[in-house]
Design a protein that fits this description.
CATH architecture of chain A: Orthogonal Bundle
Largest sheet of chain C: 6 strands, mixed
Number of helices of chain C: 8
Strand content of chain C: 35-45%
CATH topology of the largest domain in chain C: Rossmann fold
CATH architecture of the largest domain in chain C: 3-Layer(aba) Sandwich
Strand order of the largest sheet of chain C: 6-7-8-3-9-10
Number of helices of chain A: 12
CATH superfamily of the largest domain in chain C: P-loop containing nucleotide triphosphate hydrolases
Number of domains of chain C: 2
Oligomer: heterotrimer
Chains: A mainly alpha (286), B mainly alpha (264), C alpha+beta (367)
Distance between the termini of chain C: 43 Å
Largest interface: A-B, 75 and 80 residues
CATH superfamily of chain A: MetI-like
Number of strands of chain A: 2
Strand order of the largest sheet of chain A: 1-2
Shape of chain C: elongated
Order of helices and strands of chain A: HEEHHHHHHHHHHH
CATH class of the largest domain in chain C: Alpha Beta
Amino acid sequence: MKAAPIEKNEARRGWCFVAPALLWTLAFFIVPFAFMAAASFASRVSRQIVYTWDLGNYVNFFSKSYLLKGLFVSLEITLLVTVISVLLAYPLAWIIAERVPKRWQRTALILAILPFWTSYVVRSYSWLLVLSSNGVINNLLLKFGLQEPLELASTTTATVIGFVHFFVMLLTLTIYSNLIQLSPNYKRAAQDLGANGLQTFWHVILPLTLPGIMVGAFLTFVLCIGDYITPQILGGNNELVLPQIIMLQLGRRADIPTAAALSIVLMLVVTLAYILCLRWLKMERT
Amino acid sequence: MNLRRVLSETFSWSYFAAIYAFIFLPVAVLVLFSFQDGRLPIPPFNGVTLKWYGEVFGDSRLMSALGNSLKVAFLSSLMACLLGFCAAYGLARFRLPATALQRVLLTAPLTVSYLIIALGLLVLFNWLGVRLSLWTVGIGHVVINLPLCFAIIYASMGEHQRNIERAAQDLGANSLQVVLLVTAPMLMPSILAAFFLSLTFSWDEFIISFLLSRFDVTLPVEIWSLLRSGLNPKTNAIGSIVFLASTVLLVVLEIFVFRARSQK
Amino acid sequence: MTADVRLQGITKRFEDFTALSDICLDIEAGEFIVLLGPSGCGKSTLLSIIGGFLSPSAGRVLIGDKDMTDVPPSIRPTTTMFQDYALFPHMTLRDNVAFGLRMRKLGRRERALKADEFLDLVGMKASAARKPHELSGGQRQRVALARALAVNPDLLLLDEPLGALDMKLRRQMQDELKSIQREIGTTFIHVTHDQEEAMAIADRIVVMNDGVIEGCGEPSDIYMRPQSIFTAGFMGEVNFIAGKVVGEDAPQIDIETCFGLTRIPRAAFRAGIPTKGESTMLCIRPEQLHPSSEHSGYTDLCQAKIIDGAFFGTHFRCHLQAPAAPELVLVAHLPQSTHLHVGETIDLGLNLADIVALPPKPPAAEL
């Protein structure tokens, strides 16, 4: 008979512990999100948010070409960045895990991600120094006989370079962690059965690390597509990504409803990517 | 046989060097031209001067922004850790209904872009008539760091710890004493890890700080407005200072904390 | 196929300690050899050296009369069965087993057929299209065996493969390993720390400790006539009675122990006959001690009091203390029908031919 009251008491105490965090998340994440979702169905009428409860903003999104273009530019850049970063980071992670002596692996890894610790804003600015028309690269090229400076900065290319720089570091970290978690016996078993280095990598190591790569790629996708800073500093004014367009709505026009609608679209894209990723991971399992 | 190995090694190490060069290029340029004796932080490099560092330390807006960043990072991380720890403890040690749902709820903000979180809070504060300030920035930072703290601490609460807590109860401690004297100290490595991770994210966070602050701003926002004035060695200087400080902190942590731990 | 193995002077030194010292061993083709010893004795290191995953600091490995010391694992005619099985989780069982064949450039259909053949050998043919994570530990192990055998190695190396299985499954797998080995005739080298397992499956057991070979021989030989104190103690429970040689009366030797004067045959000395005045250690297994009153054929050892006892099913295991040697605690396995109680005193006897006399361990080695 004594079991029931003790359990109720227990549960109550448990709630006391969890409640503050739940309430905070509710008040400052769920509710704002709901507000924003609601605002996406409103319109801006002379500086006020009027809840018209229609899909006007969404219709606008598909009809106004510059808004839709923002999404495509975002997707294009993000996919490019993800693919390039994975292709560049994997070999580096592999070299650190397999070629660098064990004692130095940690140091090598930390060095590889050290620039992480410059402020994100400053890091993108640094690429401006390198890529701008009077920057480091152009200076070097001009010395070697190039007639006119290359327009590297303020382009989509610069944005991609800036992103790749960041995500190569991130992916090196995640892929490396994945590689060293593999049991060394997989490699030994493959060699034992006659596989050389390349065969071992292709048939055994690579497939086993594929899920880890997928997770890293997804993380890259999410962070890249939602980033405002790097495109704003390094990109030109011609091809704006979705976050830049959202900020424009906020800044100049104080158009919260449109900004909200665009944010929801961004979120939906990320959710779609998440679902695809999960599906793929599940397929890999079976 | 051997030739293959030699070729593969050469290729590996060349690639290694090339990627490292790529990774360090912007940072090297940043630091080098922070000492530029000239107006612009671009080649040619005229000479070494410390005047830009002087300007940084003399810039009161920059220095107060630095202080603001520290304040916001510290307080918001503290709050996130506290809330996260309690939530993790509650969910891990008590049998509550819908545990899975609560976990999803608490970690949901990890999946949403910071821009969207900032926007949501902007709308909320607008509606409530709350003025934008460092406090609103702090609230936003707790939102992004709470899921992280919760996840890290929750993951480290295993059965093994549960038995230690039971032993403490068995010896007469009440639940508050168990939490304060046994659980928290036992989980200190994860709690500290969560705290430092939150500090890192909060310290460098831009978009929430930008949208949710008004007059008092954090360092990234102040640096952003510096960027408005174009290429300036002063920006290089503050960037290099941040980089140097973080690197030193990392090296210190590495030597004293991680090295010591791995030797145990 | 199969081949013989010769290890000549294998030594392995790591940074701060020596794992193997001058190991010399000859293994015949088709033998099932078990390397037995406690953890840290070097048996897994030796296996890795034979398999080619480690290079010895000194010495040679000859497989089938060819020097294989520097040959990498992919070319060596050995395959290894790892402790964690190391089945490729992303491949089906069939592809796992066929992997080695694929590396040998066999065509798809041919290697699928062969893989199925080996899966059938281990009784897993029906699951050929499944993935490793769908199987239990025992099943995974069978597949690992099939994979290792599919490439027709001369030598199969097993690194404590049965450690993770429960008792019943382990016994079953031991029998299967033995029968498969007899059927295909490949030389098997099996590493374990479980002496019962070793005795169950080995043609010959190699007992190792601290990087050296302490004993080598057939199971019954190793158990009943061990060659060192360590081997005697490792193979099972044993009573050690210290003694001193006081005379010789060929073919027997007189030993003085705490129980008085005994005359034991020369054959009891497995590691050299000590001279008069030297000390020796007599070893008697618990099941070799019998209540004297039962059978007149036994030589009396001493009178002893039972200080504790427990029924073990097949025998009654008890500890006894003799007033003649109060600091010595004897352990005996008395017949299961014994009805004796703690505190009772009985007469213990033994068969002199069962005694093994070994040189006592020097004090330093006892660390």
